[in-house]
Amino acid sequence: MNERYVFGEFVLSASRRVLRRSGREVALVPRYFDLLLLLIRRRDEAISRSEILDTVWSDVVVSDGALSQAVRTLRRALGDDPARSRYIRTVSRFGYQFVFPDVVQSDDAAPIPIAGPLSEGTIPAANDFETVFEELASEAPETERRLAAEALHGLSTEKAVARLRAAPRSPEARALLRDARWDMPQAGSVPIFGQPRPLRTLWELLLLRLRGVKRAAGKRYAAAVAGATAAGFLAGAAGGLALYLGPASSATGAVFVLLPLIGGLIGAVGAAGVAAGLCCAEVLIRSRRGAALIVFGAAGGGMVGAAGHGLGSLVLQGLFGQDLSAVAGGLEGVVIGAATGLGYALSTPLSGGGMATPRGAARWIAVLAAGLSCAGAAAVLTANGSYLGAMSLDLLAHRFPGSQVSLEPLARLLGEANPGPATRMVIGAWEGLLFASGTIFGLTHRPK
Hints:
Elements: E1 3-7, E2 10-13, E3 18-21, E4 24-26, H1 30-41, E5 47-48, H2 49-56, E6 60-61, H3 64-78, E7 88-91, E8 95-98, E9 103-107, H4 129-136, H5 142-164, H6 170-180, H7 198-210, H8 213-245, H9 255-284, H10 289-320, H11 330-347, E10 355-356, H12 360-383, H13 389-397, H14 408-413, H15 421-443
Antiparallel strand pairs: 1-2, 1-9, 2-3, 3-4, 5-8, 6-10, 7-8
Helix pairs in contact: 1-3, 4-5, 5-6, 6-7, 8-9, 8-15, 9-10, 9-11, 9-15, 10-11, 11-12, 12-15
């Protein structure tokens, strides 16, 4: 829509996506601009926090504190005082409302006029550098020091970085300054290496972001594990049906109960590692999100694969004297996790980092991209002799007389007398497709 809003000394242009104050542009993060525009457009009503998050942050998951931070930044840009709200009013336990009474709306086709001088009594948009810097380097609460870090980016990032070299508590302050740069469009570089105490700064930055992992990723992680469990259940049910109906099958109705349960368990265990890696990557790494998803997904899959292989080997070797060395383990987990992260990263690019929550067709594209990536990786693994879920069961079936889970009936459906290369690749690709698709479908669920 090509509308323009004039209020006080401010002019907001929707089509040009610019906010000017007395003729000077006020730098705003794109999402913060969207928030201000939403509040002004619907200034006759209070908007709930959940609706704002669903509208402004529709494609990414953020904590509830991100909205509070956005409002604080807007108030500072507008020179607003939360104790005597002139522009943005907090509606207790509900949300926010734009309350400035004299808003003139017009068409945005004409050149933007220069607004009048700053009104008396308003709070300056930028605070004094020394005062703000002392706040950042102080022992004030983290929320207050983060506000100071944002303000310093608006004043001079370079000057703030230089002052931090000799400041007390410099690692913690530098970590806050570096993390805040993602929310400030005019922010400069905040280096870590080449500065005093770089390892301590990295540690403080890690702790800063770890504090947001449980808050931001907990529900998404649970949904990802649930999605993979459901996908594993579906794979087991489909496998049970194929075994039961396959040529010369000796399977009984028990396969319809046991195989879905086993498939769901395998899916849950696998996703417990892979989804943990993906969640940590999205919360902790912002500058290289795509690479982080691949590496962390591989690490999570590798750890759970190695742990599962070791525990399974211990049980079967110790109790039944059966060797499980050929069954999937750490290497397979690394490949499956990396492939899932690759498909997810390619289909949900976020330049500023964060936790993607695509909707509608975009969500299904992400699910399919991850599924196809993982299916290809699983097919390659099985072609090179790896035994994944169903093939591992088939391997064990031949070592325990009377087993009903031999895949020979399914192999005959695929034109092979016994499970050969074609059977292994088809089953592996099917399992990889369902596992990654279920994991990403759950991971992209937007928590309420």
